Amino acid sequence: MNPRARLWLVVLGGGGLAALLVAACLRLPAFGGPWHPYGDRAVRAALARHIANTIASVNFDQRAFDTMGEMTILFAAVLGCVVLLRQARDEHRDPPEPCEVAAPVRRYALVVLPIALVTGLYVIAHGQLSPGGGFQGGVVAATALHLMYLGADYAALERIRPVEAFEIGDALSASAYLVLGFAGVLAGGAFLANTLLPYGTFNTLSSGGTVPLLNAAIGMEVASAVVVLLARFLDQAVEIEEGSGS
Amino acid sequence: MADAVVVVALLAVAGLATAAVANRDPARQALVLAVLGTALAVLFTVLQAPDVGLSQLAVGSALTPLLIMLSVRKVRRRSAHGKDSKQ
Amino acid sequence: MNGWILAATVVLAVGLGTTLWGVATGPLGRRVVAQNLSTALVCPGLLLLSQGYDRTSYVDLALLLALLGPVGTLVFARLLADELAEEQPRAWGLTWAAAGLGAVVVAVLCAVTGPGRSMVKLLIVGALLVGGNLLASRAMSGGFPGVSRG
Amino acid sequence: MKTRTTLLAVGEVLAWWAALVVLWLMLISTVYTLEWVVGACAAGVGALAARAGRRAAVRPR
């Protein structure tokens, strides 16, 4: 296909998409109106199960099956990265030289690492009470560990981060989500139905039945998956060299 | 008048997204992308979606830049390596 | 619309506007400085928004930005250390001005909140924000003297 | 000498743990028993990570 025909194809496709989007926008309800059919029902369902944050109720109760799909996508994506970014036969590992970091940067990283880790765990634990949840907190906790790479060097990060343990943790927490789903079936309900545990007192950590447990499973899964993903990227960027060694 | 902050956030997102596309160097694109992440978090907050805003902050402020910059470093090292072996 | 949201609108418009201009044009050093300033200017805006909407749980957004924003700048300072070593970007005037804005906003919100645990939370956010930004500024002008490889 | 290092290590972890429990109490909105338990566990993880990080950053020469 010559460039001219390609341009025409793009113009045609883009123009059609734009026309459809404009037509769809014209039929949308007005911005900020008082009519929220889905929102009203979701809030009612969340309050019936003593969950303060409706978003957590949608993610881990009303649409828990969708969340399982998203978790599977993340799991598969990380698995694909691990396979793609492995050390090939014509590559060798060349451990990086220890590097020099200014003292204030190193001190900052060492102080902020535990603070960020605890904040990530706080965001995971309060998923059904305030904005946040497993995904957000898991990413924060995983990012916190990589302050070791920024504030010291790659060898220091490797010393506090056993990748194998995080790979196992990733698989374990993904299966924990499935086990919790099947527990609903065994208890006589449906897959991932939130009928297993008492709903507890509204606005406490134990409220919402299985929601806090599913939330914790997702938090652990995301944190492990991000650590494994970044480990492969760091390996490729810092350690693995082309050529089969000299 | 109450929507002024929404307009500000939308304009910032539109401007930053355009700047991210207009830049050609991946390192500079990553810088614009990091700022775009915070602008998107503000937009989600003023649209009363703090959960999505938190996701955007968590991913966009440190994780995405780190992934992009590590890929840039790998590509640069590979091309430098290729030059060395040719000489 | 109350005064808090108006203040947040002004802070966010000025902050996002200047950082958009700074991060999209000019040499690499200036862009990294602008990326660092975006954290320092947007975080006070988020705090003001949480006060304006009267939702204390929105402070978590500012907390996360204050924690992770400087980490993002450290990523660039570390992985672009070679390029930045030639430029030695310094913008201490701007950095201290942004830090001052953060401190003023946190102080005002603390005065409104009154003593209690939520005030301490605001102070933690403020300390992380100001400390992180000053440190990130320091890091990008020679914080990584020997990281040519690794 | 051995006991001294052990004591120092335990002291470091305990100091971090106490500081992180206080941080947790400042982040949350209402305090009750389960919150104390979860906060203490999270602070424990953070304190161990803090010590591991500081040890890893000191370069073995």
Automatic annotation (TrEMBL), chain A:
Subcellular location, in the record's words? Cell membrane
Na+/H+ antiporter MnhB subunit-related protein domain: from which residue to which, for each copy? 106-227
Q: Which domain of life is it from?
A: Bacteria
| PROSITE patterns (UniProt xref) | PROKAR_LIPOPROTEIN
Q: What is its main location?
A: membrane
Q: List residues traversing the bilayer.
A: 71-88, 108-129, 135-156, 168-193, 213-234
**Which of UniProt's keywords are assigned here?**
Cell membrane, Membrane, Transmembrane, Transmembrane helix
Q: Which GO terms describe its cellular component?
A: plasma membrane
The protein's matches in InterPro entries, at most eight in alphabetical order, are given as: CPA3_antiporter_subunitB, MnhB
Membrane topology type: Multi-pass membrane protein
Checking Pfam families in the record gives:
MnhB
Question: Keyword Translocase on this protein?
Answer: no
Family in the record: Belongs to the CPA3 antiporters (TC 2.A.63) subunit B family.
Protein name according to UniProt: Na+/H+ antiporter MnhB subunit-related protein domain-containing protein
Q: Which organism is it from?
A: Streptomyces spiralis
Mind giving the lineage of the organism this protein is from? Bacteria, Bacillati, Actinomycetota, Actinomycetes, Kitasatosporales
Automatic annotation (TrEMBL), chain B:
Membrane topology value: Multi-pass membrane protein
- Where do the TM regions start and end? 29-47, 54-72
The record, for InterPro entries, names: MrpA_C/MbhD, Nuo/plastoQ_OxRdtase_6_NuoJ
Which subcellular locations apply to this protein?
Answer: Cell membrane
Signal peptide range in chain numbering: 1-19
Task: State if Transmembrane helix is listed as a keyword.
Answer: yes
Q: A single GO CC term, please?
A: plasma membrane
Instruction: Please provide the record's keywords in A-Z order.
Output: Cell membrane, Membrane, Signal, Transmembrane, Transmembrane helix
Domain of life of the native organism: Bacteria
**Cited Pfam families:** MbhD (PF13244)
Q: Which residues form the MrpA C-terminal/MbhD domain?
A: 12-77
| Name of the featured protein | MrpA C-terminal/MbhD domain-containing protein
Give the organism the record lists: Streptomyces spiralis
TrEMBL record, chain D:
Question: Which organism does this sequence originate in?
Answer: Streptomyces spiralis
- The record lists the membrane-crossing segments as 7-27, 33-53
- By what name is this protein known? Uncharacterized protein
Q: Which UniProt keywords apply?
A: Membrane, Transmembrane, Transmembrane helix
